[in-house]
């Protein structure tokens, strides 16, 4: 059975980690063809061809595909859909924007944020902020699925798939790109980092967030934040971890000044080791923490940063 | 311009859900239900468009069980002008899939001819994050998802979207479907007088059959289980002990 996988391509570059994790999940369904779409996508196509488990790469380059606008990307995928039983992608914001549109064009349901593949029709997915895991069986002829990348390991890079160039679909010209605001960072990416240090409302200000960042840099970690910290302007939106932010499962997650609301836990409770630093010993975050430290973060975090030397 | 706002009745976000012992789903009997938090933000934004003179009517729609009329009354109390309830299920445990919801919404859009649809980015019960995008596909309209800023200006709207890399701003042609994220605005509370007034605002009752939409699910729920619980951890007494434990565990 054939699977079309929408590779994650941003400004011509392949997001290897997210794509390779989705390939691991997709390979359980059948023969994987990866689609790299963008204004420039040839380099991304070359990179995708190396992912083990990808048997073919389609490269679609067109100005209309440049900023992953939903309408032209969905039109392209729908035009290719005839050859595939599964249309899949990593559950990034780009894919969540595009895949439901593809599904509706094909008159099938979308199955979002899948965390487990039972068989070609049956999938597991978390619901209610991860407080329940639902197994759903699709009766649709085509299955449109996004995979929660934090639950799959990345496929290796020893592949050598063939690459074919294809054209774009007619551009519905319904929307246009204006600008991206992306903060450049030397830190590892939040969703693929081995260590994540997150700060919450307890950190108290944008200035004090430097404490979190210094600890993160000491650990070679990505920086995360609770919604309250983002809402209060201490941290940018793309740092938010949780039900409505990013889902992470690093080897080590350090939660500082975060109470542990279920919406936050939804994004990090599958981390291997969880450390919580909070001055309130009753904070719910301690219920999921492997190592909890009841302390004032303004004392504990600098001390920890120093002692990890 | 008319604004259409689909609002979903979901389990209150403060309630800890419990999976039923027989694995058939989540226990929704006798738990507090509320409007999906994202939809409160959509209603608020719709009212602000009307207050700014950019819209003249706000119509709230809910699809589901009869009790969803409470959710619609909340939308009316916040300031929506009228409401449409589409009864598509009898049992509170029956949820209508986004594809079916989108088809019903399409039929309502064809009838009501709104200039914009403001939906939530996701419903906090099933977290599908799909309905707005599906409706947009069915209508052949533009879509601006995960909006944290919205500026409607004549025949286009500028939307700032919260995406993995940060923020993306796009310009969409009207009519458009916008799905709203949490940072778009802070929804108002309904005042007591407005709650009283809302009881008199028009609320039309329809059924899925009125719109000729088949709501038979495409996804069968095979089972629902509790996620694996984490093993209990320990409290450490000092930073030194924390560092020691992390070293022992090979984490640093
Ligand atoms: C629909 C919806 C979706 C949501 N999605 C998300 C999401 O994706 N991610 C998310 O995080 N939240 C989300 N939330 C919000 C969530 O419910 C909580 O409000 C939020 O996580 C709280 O953030 P916090 O823990 O930083 O703040 P608080 O709950 O205010 O906790 C702050 C903590 O800091 C501690 N503290 C204060 N000062 C110090 C100090 N000096 N030293 C040590 N500790 C200190 C306090 O004891 C407290 O425990 C969502 C909510 C809704 C309704
Ligand atoms: C316990 C349980 C039982 C289930 N049983 C069934 C079943 O018997 N049959 C079945 O078909 N499916 C069932 N499901 C699956 C379920 O229908 C879908 O997974 C679900 O609808 C996913 O969509 P969502 O509500 O998360 O929508 P999203 O796409 O996340 O919602 C986004 C936005 O769309 C709008 N919206 C969504 N739904 C509505 C609505 N009803 N009215 C108005 N506006 C709306 C709102 O603006 C909302 O913010 C069940 C799920 C669970 C957990």
Walk me through the structure.
The complex is a heterodimer of chains A (309) and B (252). Chain A is built from 8 helices and 18 strands. By secondary structure, chain A is an alpha/beta fold. Chain B has helices at 37-51, 68-78, 98-112, 131-139, 192-198, 239-248, and strands spanning 2-6, 9-11, 33-35, 57-64, 82-87, 116-120, 142-153, 156-163, 166-173, 176-180, 203-207, 219-225, 234-236. In chain B, the strands form 2 sheets. Chain B has a 9-stranded mixed beta sheet, with helices on both faces. In chain B, strand 8 (156-163) and strand 9 form a beta hairpin. Chains A and B meet through helix 3, helix 4, strand 7, strand 9 and strand 10 of A and helix 3, helix 4, strand 7, strand 8 and strand 9 of B. Strand 10 of chain A pairs antiparallel with strand 12 (219-225) of chain B, so a sheet runs across the interface. One flavin-adenine dinucleotide (FAD) is lined by residues 6-8, 25-26, 36, 38-39, 61-64, 93-98, 101, 119-120, 122-123, 125-132, 217, 221 of chain B.
- Using the alpha-carbon principal axes, give the shape of chain A: elongated
Tally of strands of chain B: 13
Given the structure, what is the number of helices of chain A?
Answer: 8
By DSSP (H or I, 4+ residues per run), the number of helices of chain B equals: 6
Would you count the extended β strands of chain A for me? 18
Oligomer: heterodimer
CA gyration radius of chain B, whole angstroms: 21 Å
Concise overview:
Chain A has 8 helices and 18 strands. Chain A has 309 residues and is of the alpha/beta class. Chain A folds into 2 domains: 2-166, Rossmann fold, CATH 3.40.50.620; 190-307, Rossmann fold (3-Layer(aba) Sandwich), CATH 3.40.50.1220.
Features:
heterodimer; A: 309 residues; alpha/beta; Rossmann fold; five-stranded parallel β-sheet; 8 helices; 18 strands; B: alpha/beta; nine-stranded mixed β-sheet; two-stranded antiparallel sheet; 6 helices; 31% strand; globular; binds flavin-adenine dinucleotide
């Amino acid at each position: 059975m054939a699977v079309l996988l929408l590779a994650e391509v941003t400004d011509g570059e392949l997001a290897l980690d997210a794509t390779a994790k989705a390939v691991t999940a997709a390979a359980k369904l059948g023969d994987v063809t990866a689609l790299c779409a963008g204004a420039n996508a040839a380099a991304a196509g070359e990179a995708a061809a190396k992912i083990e488990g990808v048997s073919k790469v389609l490269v679609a380059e067109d100005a209309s595909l440049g900023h992953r606008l939903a309408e032209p990307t969905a039109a392209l995928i729908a035009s290719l859909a005839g050859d595939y039983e599964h249309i899949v992608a990593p559950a990034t914001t780009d894919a969540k924007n595009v895949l439901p549109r593809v599904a509706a064009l094909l008159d099938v349901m979308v199955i979002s944020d899948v965390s487990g593949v039972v068989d070609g029709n049956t999938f597991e997915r978390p619901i209610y902020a991860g407080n329940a895991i639902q197994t759903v069986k699709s009766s649709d002829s085509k299955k449109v699925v996004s995979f929660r990348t934090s639950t799959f390991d990345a496929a290796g890079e020893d592949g050598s798939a063939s690459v074919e160039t294809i054209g774009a679909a007619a551009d519905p010209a319904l929307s246009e790109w204006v600008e991206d605001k992306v903060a450049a960072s030397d830190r590892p990416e939040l969703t693929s980092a081995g260590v994540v240090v997150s700060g919450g409302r307890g950190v108290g200000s944008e200035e004090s967030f430097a404490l979190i960042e210094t600890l993160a840099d000491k650990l070679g970690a990505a920086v995360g934040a609770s919604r309250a910290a983002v809402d209060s302007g201490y941290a940018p939106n793309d740092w938010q971890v949780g039900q409505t932010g990013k889902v992470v499962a690093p080897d080590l997650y350090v939660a500082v000044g975060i109470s542990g609301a279920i919406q936050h836990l939804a994004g990090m409770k599958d981390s291997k080791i969880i450390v919580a630093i909070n001055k309130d010993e009753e904070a719910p975050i301690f219920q999921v923490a492997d190592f909890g430290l009841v302390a004032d973060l303004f004392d504990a975090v600098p001390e920890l940063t120093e002692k990890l030397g | 311009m008319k604004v259409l706002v689909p609002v979903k009745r979901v389990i209150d976000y403060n309630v800890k859900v419990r999976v039923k012992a027989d694995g058939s789903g989540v226990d929704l009997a006798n738990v507090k239900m509320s409007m999906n938090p994202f939809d409160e933000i959509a209603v608020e934004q719709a009212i602000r468009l009307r207050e700014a003179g950019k819209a003249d009517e706000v119509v709230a729609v809910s699809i589901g069980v009869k009790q969803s009329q409470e959710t619609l009354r909340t939308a009316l109390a916040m300031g929506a002008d009228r409401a449409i309830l589409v009864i598509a299920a009898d049992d509170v445990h029956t949820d209508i899939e986004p594809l079916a919801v989108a088809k019903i919404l399409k039929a309502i859009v064809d009838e009501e001819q709104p200039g914009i649809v403001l939906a939530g980015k996701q419903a906090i019960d099933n977290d599908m994050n799909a309905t707005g995008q599906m409706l947009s596909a069915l209508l052949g309209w533009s879509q601006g998802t995960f909006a944290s800023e919205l500026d409607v200006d004549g025949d286009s709207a500028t939307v700032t979207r919260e995406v993995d890399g940060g923020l993306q701003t796009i310009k969409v042609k009207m009519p458009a479907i916008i799905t709203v994220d949490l940072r778009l605005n802070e929804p108002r509370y309904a005042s007591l007088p407005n709650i009283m007034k809302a009881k008199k605002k028009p609320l039309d009752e329809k059924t899925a059959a009125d719109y000729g939409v088949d709501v038979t699910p495409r996804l069968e729920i095979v089972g629902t289980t509790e996620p694996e619980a984490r093993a209990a951890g320990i409290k450490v007494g000092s930073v030194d002990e924390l560092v020691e434990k992390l070293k022992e565990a090979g984490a640093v």
